[in-house]
Amino acid sequence: MPVEFLTDEQAAAYAAYHGAPSRTELERFFFLDDADRELIESKRRAHNRLGFAAQLTTARYLGVFLDDPTSVPPEVVDYLAEQLDIGDPSVLKVYGEWENTRLEHVRELRRVLEYREFAEAEGELRERVDARAWTTGEGPKALFDAASGWLRERRVLLPGVTTLTRLVASVREAANQRLWDTLYGMLSVGQRAVLDSLLTVPPGERVSELDRLRRGPVRVSGPQMRRALERAEEIAGLGMGALDVSGIPPRRLAELSRYGVDGKASLLRRHSDARRLATLLATTVYLTSRAVDAALDLLEVLIATKLLARAERESAKEKLKTLPRVERASAKLATAFQVVFDTTSEQVDTDTGEIAPPKVESLEGMWAAIEQVVPRHELAAAIAALFELTPPLDSDADEAWRAMLVNRFGTVRPFLRLLVAVVDFDATPEGEAVLCVLLSLPELMGRKKVGPAEIDAGLLTGSWRRLVLSAPHLEPGTVDWKAYTFCVLEHLHRMLRSKQVFARNSSKWGDPRAKLLAGEAWQQARPTVLASLNLPGEAGGHLAARAALLDGTYQEVAGRAPDNAQIVFDDDGRLHFAALEPEPKPASLLDLRAAVNAMLPRVDLPEVLLEVFSWTGADQAFTSITGGEARLRDLHVTIAALLVAQGCNVGYTPVLGSVDALKYGRLSHVDQTYLRLATYRAANAALISHQASIGLAQSWGGGLVASVDGMRFVVPVPSVYARPNPKYFGRRGGATWLNMINDQAAGLGGKVVAGTPRDSLYVLDVLYDRDGGKRPEMIVTDTASYSDIVFGLLTLAGFAYAPQLADLPDQKMWRIDRAADYGAFQDAARGRIDLARIERHWEDILRIIGSIHTGAVRAYDVIRMLSRDGRPTPLGDAIAHYGRIAKTLHILRLADEPGYRRQIKVQANLQEGRHALARKIFHGRAGQLYQRYQDGMEDQIGALGLVLNALVLFNTRYMDAAVQQLREDGFDVRDEDVARLSPFVRHHVNMLGRYSFQLPDLPGGLRPLRAPDTTDDA
């Protein structure tokens, strides 16, 4: 059983000082409170007091007592001596000379502080590690760190490193085996045979059945839709989705399924029966719902892009083609009718006012006048052309493209029957009519005659009524069932997106209402949620306080408005802002930037990663998907190479090398086994934490302000997960990386979404799903992320939402008191907030935000659920009214505080700088994303995000060292200039060609800085 999962450096750092503790650690572990001082003051001499204090705080920090007290870092000794008023910290050396004194102090501390031996807590620790290993599946290093932390917190003296590693390894191995045995025990003999058959390669085929089934659809077409449904039907037919796996921790089931989805069939065959079949069971359970997800993803994009959007485009093209004929016919008709008006109307002399009779007195005379300008046969042809080329008067703007849509019935014919057979649809009361009709469509297909009584005429909105009931080719008493089918599909598409129709056997397209906390579950979670979000159970007092805040803010800002040159009101009372003047760049700032940038050492990008790994241990987050321990030497080198290959979008070729760590087979194995979204996120958490500890990053901000924005990628390969948008992607499809960065320049996480949807649908999910770092308090976004419902949800979740509101005059300001006089804002505050509406829905509002806060449901699904056809539901409207309070406060602050506007702009610019650096890193293959599946997109963008954070961390640490060096050298370094330095520089980093993977010895922890006056050519 492998237990050597710690490197030599990590083993040496266990229960020992590894460099000086940070300032935060000093204040947390080495601060002496009154009880500590009482113990210490009983010692007579200064060296005894200092030595005793060192033993006490070291036990608190490391979990052990020191054999050699003089090994305490000088920073710790100085911090303790300062608290004890000991002027000469070097007296600690005297303490180290008296072994009996040290042993006596250790015995006293163990007795007074009630420290226990490891043997007394070993059983409890095993249970703790077992529970964590069973529920999380964390790697051995994470479990080891958690175990040592648990021991320190409970004042248990740490055992030897080998003892603890063996305990963690054995408990983790037992938890894994129990997981496999539990899943294996759920299977009958027949089910085991079915699962094993998935690993076989059928005669004449090149891949196993598992490989075939785990490949989802990529192209958008009717035949592909049918194949996607057949795949979902086949996977469901395996019967594994019916097994009750609710007793298995979801995270463990997900990890097993990820291994089954990504791992090679040949590797799976080599495992024991229990492990192999457990993995296959988890994989098929995952694929059972995921295959339906994929089919409905395809259906949604097929209807949106290949049917509706294409019909609209083709209809518009046809209109353009007919435009010359329409123009000519219209001109002839206009000319003829001008003659009619001129010849049949009374003539008025504008000078004298005299009225003369019409020029002609008979119909024949009128026609004679007309035919002088337009022959009668041409006029008849023009009228016929207009009847042919223009819709009837009672038509609508959609009729032309809907009529064209009916001609594309061949696209949907292949899969309609299968759709209702494979997908277990259900609906809310609002969607029941559409669902009922959808289920009945197969009965109508192919019939020669369908009567009006056989359809639901209530669904025939707009031009669908004419197309279904009155099409020219219809026999009397029949309807066009093809047009009716597309009418139903248009309704289905809209209701699937709003979750009014949903799929019970799908995770992504399921019913979000079923996931909301309810009943006993909500009652149990409610107190914790309210305390966590600082929300009251009853709305009355809370809303009164919000109303008073809004009223008071209006009064204060209105009082300062006459002297505020940054705002003006137009004739309609609408608010306008003056443009923000750019911040001046003093010569001292330009000189500092030039000096700091010149001092940065030149490196290859892989060297950046390797050095950052040595600082942070982030490479330890890359654990094997198989659950086993890493048995590869120089694994960190292979991981760095793969991060460059993926993050730079250049593939394996530029990073291949002659050493084992850089050979193709090794790269391919580690890529499939160690790199995945979960390990990227764990590694990123280590980088975020390290970034926050650097003084320069702290001068930029406290980590409590963050922004969320999207970075667009063209996806030139066929993919269901790429959507069209000519503005960003040209003629291709694309995807968006919606990512979050804090004011310390650390990327906190992100999400890949198809196309360019409104960011507002995903912002809250990104906030709640961050990789690490402090929870931001203020959130900056662009206008695309704005809506009143999002304002309400973010405010309820405890965030200060600060979107950049473009075209502010079009943004309505809101008030509660109709009678209040708000001075200059009187006309701008034309909307009214209904507090009674909020109060009526308060309990449901709490349940909604509580479900999002606890992770029971995605905010994306909730926001979709709260809106129907672009209009909010009653509950959505109540949340929007609550959000309008915060929105108006935000606008008032924008109007009153130029510094607030500038803070928002600075954070938005920070995100733009990060995206610019990301573009430079992701330079291969024209910066386009060649991943067909969402998992692949998330993995590659996860690699990009990690490389980006590593480079920013590298720059930040070296820039911090450069600033310190410049201060020591007497350079004019001003704090206000330091706060404006940017870590998004790249001139010193090689990202092109072949790379160096050699990390030099760094005796001082960092490379030597270059001279401040060094040129780039030096």
What sort of overall outline do the alpha carbons produce when their principal axes are compared? Answer: globular
End-to-end Cα distance: 53 Å
Give the averaged pLDDT, no decimals: 88
**Total of DSSP H or I helical runs spanning 4+ residues:** 43
Describe this entry's structure for a reader:
The chain is α/β, with parallel strands linked by helices. The chain contains 43 helices and 18 strands. Strands 8, 9, 10, 11, 12 and 13 form a six-stranded mixed sheet that branches. Strands 1-2 form a two-stranded antiparallel sheet. The longest helix has 72 residues, at 273-344. It is globular. It starts with 7 loop residues before the first helix and ends in a 28-residue tail after the last strand.
Summary?
With 1018 residues, this protein is α/β, with parallel strands linked by helices.
Key traits:
alpha/beta, single chain, six-stranded mixed β-sheet, 55% helix, 1018 residues, 43 helices
Layout of secondary structure:
Blueprint (H helix, E strand, L loop, with lengths): L7 H6 L9 H7 L4 H8 L4 H17 L11 H10 L8 H4 L3 H14 L5 H19 L3 H14 L7 H25 L3 H9 L11 H5 L8 H16 L12 H13 L2 H5 L3 H72 L2 E2 L6 E2 L6 H9 L4 H14 L9 H8 L2 H4 L3 H7 L2 E3 L4 H13 L19 H6 L11 H17 L3 E3 L8 H4 L3 H15 L5 H22 L6 E3 L5 E3 L9 H13 L3 E2 H12 L18 H13 L16 H10 L3 H16 L2 H6 L4 E11 L7 E2 L1 H4 L3 E10 L4 E8 L8 H6 L9 E4 L6 H9 L3 E4 L10 E2 L15 E2 L2 H6 L1 H12 L5 H7 L1 E2 L2 E2 L1 H23 L1 H24 L12 H35 L6 H4 L10 E2 L28
